[in-house]
Amino acid sequence: MNSQKKELLDIVLLACEDAGKKIMKIYESGDFSVQKKSDKSPLTTADLASNETLFAYLNKTGIEICSEESILDVNKRTHNSKFWLIDPLDGTKDFMAKNGEFSICVALIENAKPQLAAIYIPWSKEVFYSAGENQVFKNGELLRPTNYEKAVISGHSSHSVSVDKICEHFGLERKKCGSAIKFCRLIEGKASLYPRFCASSIWDIAAGDYLLAQSGGAMVNMRTNEPFSYAKELKNDFFIAVNASQMQNLQTYLKFAKSLLDD
């Protein structure tokens, strides 16, 4: 890892830890207000506190920031741009449900692709991060899973019928988990497949996409079988994500998932 990337990564990790403390203080107090954004999704005091904290740290880098709560102008999100892409509180509904399954996502985007990323889980104080070199770390330790569970992981409110059909067809257990933590569990080997049959925003998946790729897995567009880019478009299509243990089965999963799109 070059010195510049290490410096940026150190800032990201400090930012996530501090933002996580702000989130947990509000979470444990139970005292937070909830607003409705224009897309009807909830926005809490914790989202705003985390967003403010992340901006305070990342502004020191001199790199533009695109956040779910403060979207960078489209003219600064080109395929030649460099910017931070952050979700200060991924899983706001999980935060409100008090299940602990919410996270902070940070990715450095350059030429429409992530170049560095971290996912921090405030409730458990787990942090997954990478600055490349096909390595992913968890709390300072290089992740090298030796056991991979054959299971499908999905959100609590995901399109159950399609996910259930995948589980039944391939004989896989289904696990449910909130926010970008699903990517972390894939990387750890606690699940093997993550299908998403609904749209997502770029700040939801950029960090997870990068960490998964650096761990030997992959995430592709369910319709086109192409990787995602992160620039002008804020929404992503359906996807299939697998960890390193299931790369040889990716096309098989993809073919079956595509057949469900017409059901």
Automatic annotation (TrEMBL):
<feature type="binding site">
    <location>
        <position position="204"/>
    </location>
    <ligand>
        <name>Mg(2+) 1</name>
    </ligand>
</feature>
<feature type="binding site">
    <location>
        <position position="87"/>
    </location>
    <ligand>
        <name>Mg(2+) 1</name>
    </ligand>
</feature>
<keyword id="KW-0479">Metal-binding</keyword>
<protein>
    <submittedName>
        <fullName>Adenosine-3'(2'),5'-bisphosphate nucleotidase</fullName>
        <ecNumber>3.1.3.7</ecNumber>
    </submittedName>
</protein>
<dbReference type="InterPro" id="IPR050725">
    <property type="entry name" value="CysQ/Inositol_MonoPase"/>
</dbReference>
<dbReference type="Pfam" id="PF00459">
    <property type="entry name" value="Inositol_P"/>
</dbReference>
<feature type="binding site">
    <location>
        <position position="68"/>
    </location>
    <ligand>
        <name>Mg(2+) 1</name>
    </ligand>
</feature>
<feature type="binding site">
    <location>
        <position position="89"/>
    </location>
    <ligand>
        <name>Mg(2+) 1</name>
    </ligand>
</feature>
<dbReference type="InterPro" id="IPR000760">
    <property type="entry name" value="Inositol_monophosphatase-like"/>
</dbReference>
<dbReference type="GO" id="GO:0000103">
    <property type="term" value="P:sulfate assimilation"/>
</dbReference>
<feature type="binding site">
    <location>
        <position position="90"/>
    </location>
    <ligand>
        <name>Mg(2+) 2</name>
    </ligand>
</feature>
<dbReference type="GO" id="GO:0046872">
    <property type="term" value="F:metal ion binding"/>
</dbReference>
<keyword id="KW-0378">Hydrolase</keyword>
<dbReference type="GO" id="GO:0050427">
    <property type="term" value="P:3'-phosphoadenosine 5'-phosphosulfate metabolic process"/>
</dbReference>
<keyword id="KW-0460">Magnesium</keyword>
<dbReference type="GO" id="GO:0008441">
    <property type="term" value="F:3'(2'),5'-bisphosphate nucleotidase activity"/>
</dbReference>
